Amino acid sequence: MYKNPTSKYWCKGLPSSEALEGIFEKFLQGGRILSNREVLRHDYIPKELPHRRIEIDRLARMLAPSLHLSKISNVIIYGKPGTGKTAVTRHVLDSLEKKANELGAKIRPSYINCRLSGTNYRVLAEICRSLDIQVPFTGLAVGELFDRFRNGIRKRKFCPLIVLDEIDTLVKNRQENNLLYELTRINESLRGGWVAIVGVSNDLRFKDFLDARVLSCLGEEEVIFKPYLADELYDIIQTRTRIAFIEGSLKESAIRLCAAIAAGEHGDARRALDLIRVAGELAERNGDTEVTESHIRAAQNKVEHDRVTEVLTSLPLHLKIVLISVFLFTNHSKNEAVTGDIYAIYQELSKEIKVDSLTQRRVSGLISELDMMGILNARLVNFGRYGRTKKVHLGFPQQAILDALSEDGLLKPLFHYVPHSIRRANLSR
After folding, report:
1. For position 254, what pLDDT does the model report?
2. Nearest alpha carbon to residue 246 among 288, 296, 275
3. Do residue 221 and residue 102 come from a single domain?
4. Three-state DSSP string of the chain
5. Which residues make beta-bridge pairs with 150?
6. Who contacts 365 (Cβ-Cβ below 8 Å, separation ≥6)?
7. How many other CB atoms are found less than 10 A from the CB of residue 99?
8. Can you give the pTM of this predicted structure?
9. Do 32 and 84 share a domain, yes or no?
10. Is the separation of the CB atoms in 74 and 221 below 8 Å?
């Protein structure tokens, strides 16, 4: 059975240096389980990608004409997180680059994670640097930066193949698609080269955020990645754990349970690999020599907590303010929150931290977005001739929201704020 890793070395009055020495000695004397944990990380690209042969072949056929320097169609790749989109794209891109180098074809692949880069400026600056076009990290107007990008391609006469992973972050919560518009139109002003875009998105509704001018050029080809089934996840876990774990340190039943849990949560391979890695780490810390089902269950609780924290802390500012508005309403009122209540609190909180508030219609859209993510539960209610509204509840425990967002110095004071709109409503009763 899995035991909580409490240590006898953390005794009252024991010097911390001795305590640390004891922990390190206990680890060194314990059984080794993981021999190469990097194989289980998200950014590891394996040589073999089980159950993605069809998607690999399809994407490779779309990109293959570039080896003759023929302009290829722009591609959008869709699929839920953990369905192999990034791994397949980078795998195909690496093979294409090797073949292009053999042929002397002037193809320059460029991979950019839009969520990590953040702004349109940083995304474009990262593209330039990946193509050896020198630009400052900040300080230029986006138009000037784009001119340098275009002139760099003209001067070198190569063909950039730009992969924009998590491309939806470029347009969600923004009112413009300028960067994507310029990238999709750049070929009209190029001679001796071209630019092709491969967009990777977790959101099947991504096209809804694009204006018609961008949509007509960007979505020329599509590849859809379906979630993995339990047997497919089992094969993926087995392939990775043969390299990652010491032989005999992982029970078959633990692999089966891990695959079943991940299959029940939208067929997410990342989830499965996280579970098996954390289970191995917990077993090592506890001095165990084998990963069992109980380690998988313990890892499930830990990964779930970490995932909630990651989701909440990575939200844009206005989504966080909307979420805290629902949190405060739930804390201070016994009634069900509706859109108007939330918007009134949202306006107060925005003013409190000196942020320009959005319109009520936009906030209603943000509530829908949080509902799609499972962070809120929003139910549309029809009041007949009085119109419609949304009744909103928290989708995560209050403590999880408090733990995740109260670390932000800007937002922390808001959790102690008592909204005037709720005070007035309580006094009127």
Report:
1. 94
2. 288
3. yes
4. CCCCCCCCCCCCCCCHHHHHHHHHHHHHHCCCCECCHHHHCCCCCCCCCCCCHHHHHHHHHHHHHHHHCCCCCCEEEEECCCCCHHHHHHHHHHHHHHHHHHHCCCEEEEEEEHHHHCCHHHHHHHHHHHCCCCCCCCCCCHHHHHHHHHHHHHHHCCEEEEEEECHHHHCCCCCCCHHHHHHHHHHHHCCCCCCEEEEEECCCCHHHHCCHHHHHHHCCEEEEECCCCHHHHHHHHHHHHHHHECCCCECHHHHHHHHHHHHHCCCCHHHHHHHHHHHHHHHHHCCCCCECHHHHHHHHHHHHHHHHHHHHHCCCHHHHHHHHHHHHHHHHCCCCEEHHHHHHHHHHHHHHCCCCCCCHHHHHHHHHHHHHCCCEEEEEEECHHHCEEEEEEECCCHHHHHHHHCCCCCCHHHHHCCCHHHHHHHHCC
5. none
6. none
7. 14
8. 0.70
9. no
10. yes
- Cα Dmax for the chain: 79
The pLDDT assigned to 10 comes to 43
CB 127 within 8 A of CB 162: yes
Helix 142-156 crosses helix 178-185 at what angle (to 10 degrees)? Answer: 20
| CATH number of domain containing 289 | 1.10.8.60
For 206, the token pair is 């991504």
Same domain, yes or no: 160 and 85: yes
pLDDT for the residue numbered 1: 44
Question: 62 and 184 in one domain?
Answer: yes
Distance from the Cα of residue 27 to its chain's centroid:
33
Q: Identify the CA nearest to 338 among candidates 326, 324, 328.
A: 326
Q: Are residues 250 and 215 in the same domain?
A: no
Query: Would you state the structure tokens that stand for residue 415, as one six-digit string?
Result: 């959790």
Residue span of the structural domain in which 271 resides: 16-36+246-312
Instruction: List all residues 6 or more positions away from 103 whose beta carbon is below 8 Å from its beta carbon.
Output: 67
Question: Same domain, yes or no, for 394 and 366?
Answer: yes
CB 279 within 8 A of CB 295: yes
Domain boundary pick from 290, 312, 334? 312
Return the pLDDT at 12: 47
In the predicted model, residues of the chain with pLDDT beneath 50 are: 1-14, 173, 175, 427, 429
Which of 72, 80, 5 shows the shortest CA–CA distance to 263? 80
Residue with tokens 């009112």: 175
CB 201 within 8 A of CB 172: no
Question: Does the residue 48 lie in any domain?
Answer: no
Q: What is the pLDDT of residue 15?
A: 52
Which token pair is 20? 């640390």
Other CB atoms within a 10 A radius of the CB of residue 153 amount to 25
Question: Which domain CATH number covers 417?
Answer: 1.10.10.10
Instruction: Find where tokens 């397949």 sit.
Output: 88
